[in-house]
Amino acid sequence: MDKQGIIKIVEKYKCDAGKLLNVLEDIQKEEGYLSEVSLKNVSSVLGIPLTKIYSVATFYSFFNLKPVGAHIVTVCMGTACHVKGAFQVLEALEDLLGVKPGETTEDGKFMLTTKDRKFTVNTARCFGACSMAPVIMVDGKIYGYVNAKKLPLILKEYGWGVKNEKDSSDRRP
Amino acid sequence: MKKIVAIEDLDNIRKIGLKKLMPDVPRAAVGLATCGIAAGGNIVYEKLKETFEKEKVDVYLTKTGCFGICHSEPIVNVRLPGKPLVLFSEVKPEDVSEIVKMVKEQSIDEQRALCKIEEWDHIIPEHPIFYGKGFNGIPLWNELPFFAYQKKLVMRNAGIINPEDIEEYIAVGGYYALFKALKEFMPDEVIEEVKRSGLRGRGGAGFPTGLKWSFARREKSDIKYIICNADEGDPGAYMNRNEMESDPHMVIEGMIIGAYAIGASEGFIYVRAEYPLAIERLSKAIADARAYGLLGENILGTGFSFDIHIARGAGAFVCGEETALIASLEGNAGRPRKRPPFPAQKGLFGKPTNINNVETWCNIAPIIQKGAEFFEKIGTEKSKGTKVFSLVGKVKRTGLVEVPLGTPLKTIVYDIGGGATNGKKVKAVQTGGPSGGCIPESLFDTPVDYERLAEAGSIMGSGGIVVMDEETCMVDTAKYFLEFAVDESCGKCTPCREGTYQMLNILKKITEGKGTRAELSLLEKTARVVKLTSLCGLGQTAPNPVLTTLKYFKEEYIEHIDEKRCPALVCRALINYFINPDACRGCTICARNCPVEAIDGKPGYVHIIDQDRCIKCGTCMEVCNFGAVVKLSGEKIETPLFPVPVKRG
Ligand SMILES: Cc1cc2nc3c(=O)[nH]c(=O)nc-3n(C[C@H](O)[C@H](O)[C@H](O)COP(=O)(O)O)c2cc1C
Ligand code: FES
Fold it and tell me: Are B571 and B561 in contact (CB under 8 A)?
């Protein structure tokens, strides 16, 4: 994001406490991730050393430093979801989207993006919708009581590829 | 907008609010907290709106928060003039026409209703609000087992009022406690009242709230801060989310009273980023409160000034710890620091700071309005008041339950929650999240309060209760929480950073059937060292899940080590899937769905799983329509070597 855009965001936050996180989150909301350029511009607009901004951006798991796919599918790995089979949901999702399981980026965060950059899969710690475990979130929308059978239907809402659809109809009657 | 100064101003708004709550026309409200929306409540709302408009029905359609009965969402409540509030559960878009018809004809289908509310104690007004009598065929809300043991003090308005309408909050007595505190009490008297009530912090440790306030009060400083801790990091706990989404003004009112008592001029609500709706509703509530002169300069014309800002967290569990939270607010990586100095002496930007959990703040208004004696009568000797728990996991009726402290676990799990799902047996509950422990079924007589949970080796924590049944492996559970601790450890102190990592390695080996008894004692020893020597609460409590499962479920660890068997059939390395040749019909569905092509067979032939290729994902078992796939640990069944024709019969 350019400096102009960042100044606009910064103006929303009058109070120093919490400002940096609020600003970084707003940038990520718009661009999906925090690019090197954005971080440098935040540094010069706020007058905070880039090293410190980098330390903050890498400390908090919410921030992505790499571009993400068009749709973000987040699987809850919280306790309630864990005991109700979140891991199986994650596996089934990886299988459906054809992303290799268990991959993480260099900074140790779990994030997988499909080759066509349509979907990014990552995990979270709890959306506070635990009564409907297991839960996933797609682009901010929460789906409860998810299982391997429901996943293809959910993904279809987000334009899950025609090609994939065909081989799924072969596999999941 | 006219600022509120005199009691008449408040009374006038109350009248306006009551007209919305109990209008002369029917009122319909859809539960739209995160859980209600996820269950499709917003679609129901839109459809109701559209249909009411199309059919020109005279109705007041609005939204509410969550009534706590999350397993029955979406909830729609309907009140006909002069009649009780009637709740409908599991309302699907296709049920909308039915609801519209009832509203239009002003006649309720009693069979379809879940329960009714005739009068409701919103706690703060002098008298309960009387909604109406009638509908003898509908049970009262507290006749349902889910509610019968509950006492709604914190959730006094949730699911009934519109959380986005300050006038409805005032209608049920909101901001009257603030009025009383600012106009009739000296700051020290407020603190005295909170002290006498016996209220203890709801963020986990249970520190007496009034005492904590007095520390910040007596510090001399040009500026003081208060913070509302809404980081709610414990996965499986979501009461704070609901408190903010369903009744945001309750949090704000508590904070203003606290700020007055302590002498703070600025307040912050630190909300985790995963709660966008809570942030949205709090922001609106803050703006509305400012407009009415309840926040900002010269509150209620008393000369006292105070304002609240929202700061967002960014997915770090450790930021729930108070010193880490402060570091985070200051724009740093959220790492804790040594205490003392405590935040009351040196907090945010080095100034005296008082920090409390969301639910702690929610209890303040009733204490001031009703007096310490009212509050002090609820609960046990040392744990006063109620606590909201999120009852989740393998239990029939999930949701948010608020009970007096001291309620036995068995009441919560069996009477309220209805026991395990699918006729299984409940094995344990996990309380307190990653800092807590697992309490076995044999100890379910334990009354839930701060001391008794600690005696059992767990903690109250923020109030998550995750129910586990015979299909939950306790070694896997311990491993799960340690993975969490390893991920979330900020890395500053060695015992937590390295100790939890070593413990996790041992647990991984045990779940893979490669552990030894010597490692089991090493695990226990390491756990004690980490507990004793870590810098902050994260490390000090991270071993609790291990220690409690070792204490109560040691035999499960031993079975994994000696017999290479996972009795709950969870640990993948120790289980195998087989196809029962007598039940297989040769339909090929398992082979077609196997992601690694590990199943051999053809139409009409018994299918066989290649044990060397199987990754044990369980898909075959899920898709088989004949129950032919079995999961075993430490045993096997005879299967043919090659596909043979299926037995007909
Ligand atoms: C690792 C860790 C995580 C914590 N997470 C939270 C949290 O999510 N919410 C919270 O209110 N308190 C949390 N606490 C407790 C806070 O440090 C602090 O005690 C609490 O906010 C004080 O509020 P109270 O007195 O109202 O309970 C956590 C503590 C530790 C050690
Ligand atoms: S544990 Fe998954 S939503 Fe809370």
Answer: no
Give the distance (Å) from ligand 2 centre to CA of residue B209.
29
User: B575-632: which CATH number, 3.30.70.20, 3.30.300.90, 3.40.50.2000, 3.90.780.10?
Assistant: 3.30.70.20
Cβ atoms of residues B172 and B157 within 8 Å: yes
Section A44-52 average pLDDT: 96
A82 touches chain B (CB under 8 A): yes
A130-147 residue pLDDT tens: 999 999 999 999 999 998
The class that CATH gives domain B386-472 is alpha beta
B589/A contact by beta carbon, under 8 A: yes
**CA–CA distance, B48 with B74 (Å, rounded to integer):** 13
CB contact under 8 A, A144 and B39: yes
B37 interfacial to chain A (CB closer than 8 Å):
yes
Superfamily of structural domain B7-166: Glutaredoxin (3.40.30.10)
Q: Is A13 in the pocket of ligand 2 (CB under 6 A)?
A: no
Rounded to a whole number, what is the distance in Å from the CA of B168 to chain A's nearest CA? Answer: 25
B577 touches chain A (CB under 8 A): no
- Under 8 Å between Cβ of B270 and B309: no
Query: Could you tell me how many residues make up chain A?
Result: 173
CA distance B80 to chain A (A): 30
Say if the ipTM goes beyond 0.85.
yes
Contact of A87 with chain B, judged by CB distance below 8 Å, is answered with: no
The C-alpha angle B483, B486, B488, rounded to 5 degrees, equals: 105
Q: Name the architecture of domain A71-167.
A: 3-Layer(aba) Sandwich (3.40)
**Average of pLDDT values for A34-56?**
96
The strand ranges marked E within chain A are 71-76, 111-113, 119-124, 136-138, 141-143
Contact status of B238 with chain A (Cβ, < 8 Å): yes
Count interface pairs A-B at CB distance under 8 A. 168
Give the residue extent of every domain in chain B: 7-166, 185-374, 386-472, 475-562, 575-632
CA-based nearest distance B398→chain A, Å: 5
CB atoms under 10 Å from CB of B248, counted, come to 27
| Domain B185-374 listed as CATH 3.30.450.20 | no
pLDDT at A107: 55
Q: Do A19 and B468 touch (CB under 8 A)?
A: no
Q: Which residues in chain B touch residue A170, judged by CB atoms under 8 angstroms apart? A: 592
Range B639-643 contact pairs with CB under 8 angstroms and sequence separation of 24 or more: B639/B578, B639/B579, B639/B581, B639/B606, B639/B608, B639/B609, B640/B581, B640/B606, B640/B608, B641/B608, B642/B600, B642/B608, B643/B600, B643/B601, B643/B602, B643/B605, B643/B606, B643/B607, B643/B608
CA distance A117 to chain B (A): 22
Please write the tens of the pLDDT for every residue from B50-64. 999 999 999 999 999
Contact across the interface for B275 and A128, Cβ inside 8 Å: yes
Q: B237: closest CA among B47, B387, B416, B31?
A: B387
What is the CB neighbour count within 10 angstroms for residue B54?
Answer: 9
CATH number of the B475-562 domain:
1.20.1440.230
Q: Which atom of ligand 1 is nearest to the CA of B322?
A: 17
Cβ–Cβ of A125/B466 closer than 8 Å?
Answer: no
Asked whether B30 and B64 are in contact (CB, 8 A), the reply is: yes
For B293-343, write each residue's pLDDT tens digit.
999 999 999 999 999 999 999 989 999 999 999 999 999 999 999 999 999
Asked if the Cβ–Cβ distance from A21 to B314 is below 8 Å, we say: yes
State the DSSP string of B86-147. EEE-S--GGGHHHHHHHHHHT---TTT--EEESEE--SSSSS-EE-----TTS-BGGGSHHH
Residues of A (104-123) whose Cβ lies below 8 Å from B: none
